[in-house]
Amino acid sequence: MTESGRSEPRESRGSAVAGVRLWFAPERLREEGQTPDYRFSLANERTFLAWLRTSMALVGGGFAVAQFLPATERALRLALAVTLLAGGALCALRAINHWIRCERAMRRGEDLPVSRFPVVLGMAVGVVALSMVLVVALGWGV
User: Is the torsion defined by CA of 50, 117, 21, 1 positive or negative?
Assistant: First the structure.
């Protein structure tokens, strides 16, 4: 038990491995703190699902670039497609991590975690979109 009367999780709180283990056993979150108002947990879940939709859109965009820009130089097309596909995978993994971190913070009565990931993702999507506009509009890479 900690000073606040809350029980410690099985692994150390700072352990990255412990955090990843929660991805596969989220019921272990119940060992920490108190159950938050269900509306906040459901809002956290809706945010998680929005991140997954974004992830699927990036993956779909990656496949679309690979299929629908065939006149573009293969290396450029592949770079754009792989960037979008990797972004989709990263977004999905980040969604899981953020959901767990927020749920844990709500149970502990802590501030919600902040993240630079939305800004990084937005900038990356903007750069890839601008690159694709240049490729299509100017015929680069043909």
Answer: negative
Contact 107, 32 (CB under 8 A): yes
In tens, the pLDDT along 6-59 reads: 444 444 445 778 778 888 888 888 888 899 999 999 999 999 999 999 999 999
Q: Residue 79 CB: number of other CB atoms within 10 A?
A: 15
Q: How far is CA 57 from CA 1, 10, 99, 112, 130, in A?
A: 44, 37, 19, 26, 17
Please state at what angle helix 74-108 crosses helix 16-24, rounded to 10 degrees: 90
Residue by residue, DSSP assigns 36-77 as PPHHHHHHHHHHHHHHHHHHHHHHHHHHHHHHH-TTS-HHHH
If one counts every other C-beta atom within 10 angstroms of the C-beta of residue 141, the result is 18
> pTM of the prediction?
0.77
